């Protein structure tokens, strides 16, 4: 169905025409007219079907029609997303759709300075896309209020529960006005989300365009049985042998495993990047940017990239490790075959993961075809095992070693511990001639070391300390050294106006 038949305003239709969007998807066809009426909505649709436009287009239309101006520190529409990448993508879509409307859009999430988030919300926003953690931080700082909220959207609500955001969601919902429009959207709808929707939605309209946990129809799926230690060799052979490979997204179960795969691929001459929760926001944005532009064709990711990230041209999704939650498999392979394209999903299954494979097939009600190992895989795997993994980008600092502070850097930016010559400062005792002691010669060598007879030198200033006690002159009994040329032992009288110190005159009052 055309967007012109859904009741959207002209500014939105002009923005869609600028993006060459003319036909609405099934979820958009059913959701947009319902949201325009102001009714709560519970939407279920498989990933890659256009859920973002399904709730953003009618919400922007309602905000523009109301004509309210947000006050400082207030927002009119809040979209909660589970990950930073998804929040950033939703905000970009909102700016694209509302380019011909006078609506302000902002996004806040962790990994960026708090001052930047404060500036984003200080003047008030029509649309704010946020992750729950950073949103509550700003609320606790009294920099943001939800009293004027008109529309609340929870995108990928099931993943929020998986990531432990249930308590944050309860706090946020308790702060929003009771009179509001609430929209729930997700690719799957487990019983926990169903119960949450029944609690927070008021007489909602339900939209379900596909069965729950149904995989994308245009994705060709297959599984390869392989031992866990040989998975990296199989991944390397597949990347090197595939001719129609454009962009490959590889999912690892752990963050450490993702970094290890990157190093092993680098040893085989394959460039790749990793994205996971331990990466900084700048590193994550750079990795996605290089993958989106095609500069790097392989991206290794954990499940933070399994939801909502829309990267065109992903031809292959490889499950290096099968997910422990079978619903995650649906989201992972949904990163390919987007916008009407075809895609391939390949899963590596070790003997220990056969139970996870059965759970996935039971959920999707689909028997995944088993593909054989490549020819001469044993010989190729043995050769790849002999390759030495690339070194880590940055080693952890040793105990007691400080990193990342200004005192550890020289004026030219080079770290002090990374000097090549390892020379000491030229004005120290072993460098500058004026600072050498009498026990050193012109080359900085101790004079005692230059003597062949190994006898004690008179140039040593500490030689008198090592002299025999019998050769020293006896100390006078009265302690007066003036006759011998020394200084007399003076009495301590204390500070002015106060009694003397420990050494008092005999018979003086205490």
Automatic annotation (TrEMBL):
Keyword Nucleus: no
Molecular-function annotations in GO: helicase activity
Assigned protein family: Belongs to the DEAD box helicase family.
Stored Gene3D superfamilies: P-loop containing nucleotide triphosphate hydrolases
Species this chain originates from: Sphingomonas alba
Name by which UniProt lists this protein: DEAD/DEAH box helicase
Domain Helicase ATP-binding: residue ranges: 32-207
Residue ranges of domain DEAD-box RNA helicase Q in the record: 1-29
Biased composition (Basic and acidic residues): 405-420, 444-456
Helicase C-terminal domain location: 237-379
Basic residues: compositionally biased ranges: 488-498
SUPFAM superfamilies referenced in this protein's UniProt entry, alphabetically: P-loop containing nucleoside triphosphate hydrolases
Record keywords, A-Z: ATP-binding, Helicase, Hydrolase, Nucleotide-binding
Entry-linked InterPro entries: DEAD/DEAH_box_helicase_dom, DEAD/DEAH_RhlB, DEAD_box_RNA_helicase, Helicase_ATP-bd, Helicase_C-like, P-loop_NTPase, RNA_helicase_DEAD_Q_motif
Domain of life per record: Bacteria
Low complexity biased stretches: 501-510
Region (Disordered): 388-510
Presence of the UniProt keyword Hydrolase in the record: yes
Record motif Q motif, residues: 1-29
């Amino acid at each position: 169905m055309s967007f012109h038949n859904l009741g959207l305003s002209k500014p939105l239709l002009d923005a869609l025409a600028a993006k060459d969007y003319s036909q609405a998807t099934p979820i958009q066809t059913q959701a947009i007219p319902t949201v325009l009426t102001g009714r709560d909505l519970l939407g279920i649709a498989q990933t890659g079907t256009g859920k973002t436009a399904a709730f953003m287009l009618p919400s922007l239309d309602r905000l523009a029609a109301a004509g309210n101006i947000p006050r400082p520190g207030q927002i009119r529409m809040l979209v909660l997303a589970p990950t930073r990448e998804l929040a950033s993508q939703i905000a970009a879509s909102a700016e694209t759709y509302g380019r011909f409307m006078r609506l302000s859009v902002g996004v806040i999430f962790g990994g960026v300075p708090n001052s930047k988030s404060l500036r984003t919300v200080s003047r008030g926003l029509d649309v704010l896309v946020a992750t729950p953690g950073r949103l509550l931080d700003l609320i606790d700082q009294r920099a943001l209020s939800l009293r004027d909220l008109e529309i609340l959207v929870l995108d990928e609500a099931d993943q929020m529960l998986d990531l432990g955001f249930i308590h944050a969601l309860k706090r946020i919902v308790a702060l929003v006005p009771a009179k509001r429009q609430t929209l729930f959207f997700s690719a799957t709808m487990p019983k926990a989300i169903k119960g949450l929707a029944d609690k927070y939605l008021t007489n909602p309209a339900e939209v379900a365009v596909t069965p729950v946990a149904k995989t994308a129809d245009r994705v060709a799926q297959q599984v390869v049985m392989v031992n866990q230690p040989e998975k990296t060799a199989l991944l390397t052979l597949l990347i090197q042998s595939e001719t129609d490979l454009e962009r490959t997204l590889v999912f690892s179960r752990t963050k450490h495993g993702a970094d290890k795969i990157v190093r092993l691929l680098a040893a085989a001459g394959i460039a790749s990047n990793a994205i996971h929760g331990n990466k900084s926001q700048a590193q994550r944005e750079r990795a996605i940017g290089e993958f989106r532009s095609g500069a790097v064709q392989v991206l290794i990711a954990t499940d933070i990239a399994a939801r909502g990230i829309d990267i065109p041209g992903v031809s292959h999704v490889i499950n290096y490790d099968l997910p422990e939650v079978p619903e995650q498999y649906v989201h992972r392979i949904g990163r390919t075959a987007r916008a009407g394209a075809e895609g391939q999903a390949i899963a590596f299954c070790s003997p220990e993961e056969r139970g996870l494979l059965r759970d996935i097939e039971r959920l999707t009600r689909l028997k995944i075809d088993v593909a054989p190992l490549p020819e001469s895989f044993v010989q190729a795997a043995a050769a790849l095992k002999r390759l030495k993994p690339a070194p880590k980008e940055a080693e952890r600092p040793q105990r007691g070693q400080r990193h990342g502070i200004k005192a550890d850097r020289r004026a030219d930016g080079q770290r002090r511990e990374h000097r090549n010559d390892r020379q000491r400062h030229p004005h120290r005792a072993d460098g500058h001639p004026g600072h050498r002691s009498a026990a050193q010669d012109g080359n900085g060598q101790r004079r005692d070391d230059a003597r062949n007879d190994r006898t004690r030198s008179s140039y040593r200033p500490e030689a008198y300390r090592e002299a025999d006690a019998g050769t020293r002159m006896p100390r006078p009994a009265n302690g007066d050294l003036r006759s011998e040329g020394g200084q007399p032992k003076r009495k301590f009288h204390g500070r002015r106006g106060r009694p003397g110190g420990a050494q008092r005159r005999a018979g003086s009052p205490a």
